[in-house]
Amino acid sequence: MADKSPSELIDDRIAELGGWRGEMLARARELIKDAIPDVIEEWKWRGVPTWYAGGGIVCTGESYKDKIKLTFVKGAALDDPKGLFNSSLDGNVRRAIDFMEGDKIDDAGLKALFAAAAALNTKKGKR
């Protein structure tokens, strides 16, 4: 599908997933766009929606059989006052949020994490 834009490929993935996983990924994408109006969407690593801002990756949106995983590549450097990170907690760099069927998204908390990740990228880019 080389003729499709990354945004179109993400649209296709959401439609392909359908059900709760498609809804969860679509909602996360909507919140990313709300939090970071100039976010850049990319399609990486043979099918992973990836969002960039401030000169770096904000997060990826991986889909699995039983979950949607949002991985923040610099998540360990972010404050998480709402305790949203629930995966990849042992590493020194990344943090992730695994959403399972029936989970509710904390819209405000997630938007704050997206904005903080973009700000961290911008801050690191100005060194």
Q: What features would you describe in this structure?
A:
By secondary structure, this protein is of the alpha+beta class. Helices cover 38% and strands 23% of the residues. The protein is built from three helices and five strands, in the order ααβββββα. It has helices spanning 6-17, 19-35, 107-125; strands at 40-44, 48-53, 56-63, 68-72, 95-99. Strands 1-2-3-4-5 form a five-stranded antiparallel beta sheet. A hairpin with a 4-residue loop joins strand 3 (56-63) and strand 4 (68-72). Helix 1 (6-17) packs antiparallel against helix 2 and helix 2 packs across helix 3 (107-125). The mean pLDDT is 93.
Summarize the structure in short.
With 127 residues, the protein is of the alpha+beta class. The chain has helices spanning 6-17, 19-35, 107-125; strands at residues 40-44, 48-53, 56-63, 68-72, 95-99. The radius of gyration is 14 Å and the shape is globular.
